[in-house]
From TrEMBL:
Pfam families, sorted: Aldedh
Xref: InterPro entries: Ald_DH/histidinol_DH, Ald_DH_C, Ald_DH_CS_CYS, Ald_DH_CS_GLU, Ald_DH_N, Aldehyde_DH_dom, Aldehyde_DH_NAD(P)
Organism annotation: Robertmurraya beringensis
Protein name (database record): Aldehyde dehydrogenase
Keyword tags: Oxidoreductase
Amino acid sequence: MENYDSLILKQKAFFRSGATKELSYRIQALEKLREAIRKNEQSLFHTLKEDLNKAEFEAYATEIGVVLEEIRFTLKHINDWVKPEKVKTPVSHIGSTSYIYSDPYGVVLIIAPWNYPFQLAIAPLIGAIAAGNCAILKPSELTPKTSELLRKMITDLFPEEYITVVEGGVEASQALLAEDVDYIFFTGSVPVGKVIMEAAAKNLTPVTLELGGKSPCIVHHDANVKLAAKRIAWGKFINAGQTCVAPDYLYVHESIRDEFLQDFQLATHELYGAKAIENPEYTRIVSKRHFDRLLTFLNNGDMFMGGGSNEETLTIEPTVLTEITWKDPIMQDEIFGPILPVLPYRELSDVIDGIHKHPNPLALYLFSENESIQQEVLHQISFGGGCINDTVYHLASPYLPFGGVGSSGIGAYHGKGSFDTFSHRKSVLKQTTKFDLPFRYPNVKDGLKKL
Ligand code: NAD
């Protein structure tokens, strides 16, 4: 196993030099990063095509455009974010003032997954830079072309002691986890999240865990069915369902089930054509292993649409399975592919009970025009984040911190949330020396003393 001792020492020394804490240094780094992303746009289209057959439109919308927007937003607000925040001071502390300083942690380790291999490595890095840290990026081994491009880009831009990329799989990840870094930001699966947290516990390293799980989507009988069908088809099949916040499964009210399914099929055909696996713009499954796992679900329940696949191109048609129950294999774990199981319901309370029996979802989507139904679901179910009458979109707002709860994750990021994630909030009380309050000391009987 490779040893990253000297790399960590170099980064720690560079951090201690204070360079990365300078506001001008952070701004310059973000500007350089933005410039490099723009310059490498065509290369990124190319590697994302090779790694996942991502179409340019999707690659720009979900990988490149998202991080450029995150940089723009960060540069717009960073001057305010870095200022110490003055807060109230209680009367009992008369004479003093109180501040919260945002302090960078030091060396942060960012471990990224393969499904949005560029965005999920760079978006946290933006927060780490803005907060004044050094960083080590470990992208996924399953998207090697994008990981290699990331390494080249970062190596051209920054000295190793500031920001660097370590390529490799589980071994590289574990070797880095064996080091004493100051913060770990991990995006990936729930089981690996547990491995990360265990490794972090050894040095009491703080973590953010952006994990996954089964995210429900509920279509109530009063929903705008056509629009729901379109927005769910988009959120489910973008990136061929390999999205952490994709609607994993659907609860549809029984009275509108057939209407919804017809509209859903139409919407899917409008997005990708009647034969998506022949569409050159349709994303593929990342590996043969993931492809084979997904195929095992195709005999669950009844096939309403799709089901076709191509082993050579590793593509699976947008598929809908009906007559599904919680006992089916497809309902045991996150699907992470273009297969949508549908469960009908009559009472909303059954939906809420069903979700409560399972770990807190990363995302939840509800389609309903009724405010009290919306409030009931929001009030009763704990989930990371989500949308009313849409899917996935919440993730793209810099004003909404993005993260899970329970087994879907710890912590959140995006926008100011990223800056806060990579900063320790250091509380400081500045006391006056003009006078001294006697009653804090034992056995003092006289009043306020002039110093
Ligand atoms: P993964 O957990 O298998 O791998 C993620 C990273 O961890 C990779 O860089 C990998 O090399 C490394 N890794 C894998 N096994 C490891 C181990 N035993 N020890 C140390 N490091 C290890 O996840 P994945 O398959 O790349 O991504 C899919 C999962 O990520 C899904 O569960 C999805 O929901 C989740 N995800 C979550 C978010 C989010 O923002 N919450 C975003 C994307 C993906």
